Amino acid sequence: MKFLKIFGIILLVLVLGFLSIGLFSGKQEYQAEVKIYKPVAEVFALFNDQESLLKWLPEVKSFEPIKETPNKVGSEYKMLIDNQGQVMEMHETLTGYKENEMIEMVFVAGWMTKNNHFTFEKLNEGTLLKASYTVEGNNIFAKSMFAFFGSMFKQIDETNLNRFKDFVESQTALQNEEKVESTI
Description:
Blueprint: H1 2-24, E1 28-36, H2 40-47, H3 50-56, E2 60-67, E3 76-83, E4 86-98, E5 102-109, E6 112-123, E7 126-137, H4 140-146, H5 150-183
Antiparallel strand pairs: 1-7, 2-3, 3-4, 4-5, 5-6, 6-7
């Protein structure tokens, strides 16, 4: 009986310790960037093209507008994501938009709210796409869990930016090949 009492106290202390992490840990914030050897206007257009999104983010199974506004800000979308065999629904709201310069969005999915802020800077040899991310759990348990997953979130988003870079640059190669074939 004494063993069960001690085990229960230890378990309670561990659970309370884990949950207290959620009280003190805030948002997970990180940045990433990638150089893309294409003009800003083309990079921005492909980044915001819904059909292209499905090509460079294979986890996205569908992307549907819920509400679209003329100036883009306030537009809402529903995305279905394949998360290792389980389908997860995300709700996206555009919170900032300046053509060829910036786009900002908020995603809400289950226990998580994620803010993505992207800027597109002109370089002599293309575009610098800079991204700032903030991930926050929507409850104390999620906040506690996410405190341990900051590097995983960053790795996923860096992978996605590199996929986008590869997609954009392959579009250029394909378009150039099509132009050469049509002139022959």
